[in-house]
Design goal:
The chain is of the alpha/beta class. It has 16 helices and nine strands. The strands form two sheets. Strands 1-4-5-6-7-8-9 form a seven-stranded parallel beta sheet. The chain has a two-stranded antiparallel ribbon with strand order 2-3. The two termini are 24 Å apart.
């Protein structure tokens, strides 16, 4: 794996044609995914059935030939492993029994107890370690503590993460106890993925942009630093990608502050600015807008080339600025890759 395009980029090597993969590349825009999901019966059954989870991870590799695979799972499996009830409402998304006071936070399981629930995920990783092409690294992943905590506190996704901010400001001690538990569980979870065969890990902080001032440092940057340091202590050669979505100018210095090998940036960040101010610290991942996977055409071609050229001077992993959406056209994915590599 050391000489694969992804690993070379994560080591800091600039390449004329960067490695490419997509966030949520195994997902609802693919007809073969929909067929496998129907076979599983429901989303959580798909996540916890290793053969089927491995199958949907492999599908975009077979169809498109991406330079990396990302494990099919969900960021809310960790709260479930910590003892929370988790279910999915069709058309509305995940639901959890809210952890919105000190007592409920104290009842969460110890971090080292998550493995029993998450063991099917590790079996999925083992299958993929055997079945993926030898030049396609497997990326394991988890949600960042702040993002996961926003769902745990509200019991669902929210537009402004308001319940989590209210809990953070109203009972800081209970909130920080919750954050510490999720951080430790995330380390355990990602480390077990690596032991099972993942070669890279990524930490998704999808709601980092809602943190301001010192809160960004305390609840986004510091947990990313702790997770990265702990994983590298256990697995010294492990590359770590972090994604503080919406960080804006706070992307600057994020490599150095966290020890991460690669910082992913969102589509609202100017690529030329990121090349001048963020890529100087290490590998950058991103940042084509997911809308182009829906609309396609000449705009997709032009934007793919623009992003590639913006980051040509340093290490770069080509990706979207967030996950591909269910209404994306697979033909546009193929066009993006043809353009990037052609």
């Amino acid at each position: 794996m050391a000489d694969t395009k992804l690993m070379r980029a994560l080591r800091g090597e600039a390449q004329d044609v960067p490695p490419a993969w997509m966030m949520r590349q195994a997902g609802r825009y693919l007809p073969e995914y929909k067929a496998t999901r129907a076979k599983a019966g429901d989303f959580l059954s798909l996540c916890y059935t290793p053969d089927l989870a491995a199958e949907v991870t492999l599908q975009p590799i077979r169809r498109f030939g991406f330079d990396a695979a990302i494990l099919f799972a969900d960021i809310l499996l960790v709260p479930q492993a910590l003892g929370m009830d988790l279910w999915f409402v069709t058309g509305e998304g995940p639901r959890l029994e809210p952890v919105d006071d000190h007592r409920k936070a104290a009842l969460l399981k110890p971090a080292e107890d998550v493995h029993e629930t998450l063991s099917p995920v590790y079996e999925t990783v083992k299958i993929l370690a055997r079945e993926l092409p030898r030049d396609v690294p497997l990326i394991g992943f988890a949600g960042a503590p702040w993002t996961v905590a926003t769902y745990m506190i509200a019991g669902k996704g929210t537009p402004d993460q308001g319940p989590a901010h209210a809990f953070k400001d109203g009972d800081t001690a209970a909130f920080e106890m919750l954050m510490a538990r999720v951080t430790d569980a995330t380390i355990e979870y990602l480390s077990a993925q690596v032991e099972a065969g993942a070669q890279v890990v990524k930490v998704f902080d999808s709601w980092a942009g809602s943190l301001t001032g010192d809160d960004f440092t305390r609840y986004c940057l510091e947990p990313a630093k702790k997770i990265t340091a702990a994983l590298k202590a256990r697995h010294p050669d492990l590359p770590v990608i972090v994604f503080p979505r919406g960080a804006g100018e706070r992307y600057v210095g994020f490599h150095e502050a966290t020890g991460a090998d690669c910082v992913a940036i969102d589509q609202d960040t100017d690529s030329a600015w990121a090349a001048a101010n963020v890529q100087t610290g290490g590998c950058v991942q991103g940042n084509l807008s997911p809308k182009h996977m829906v609309t396609g055409g000449q705009a997709l071609i032009d934007e793919t080339l623009r992003v590639r050229e913006a980051f040509r001077g340093g290490p770069h992993v080509f990706n979207l600025g967030h996950g591909i959406t269910p209404d994306a056209d697979p033909d546009n994915v193929a066009l993006m890759l043809e353009t990037l590599r052609g």
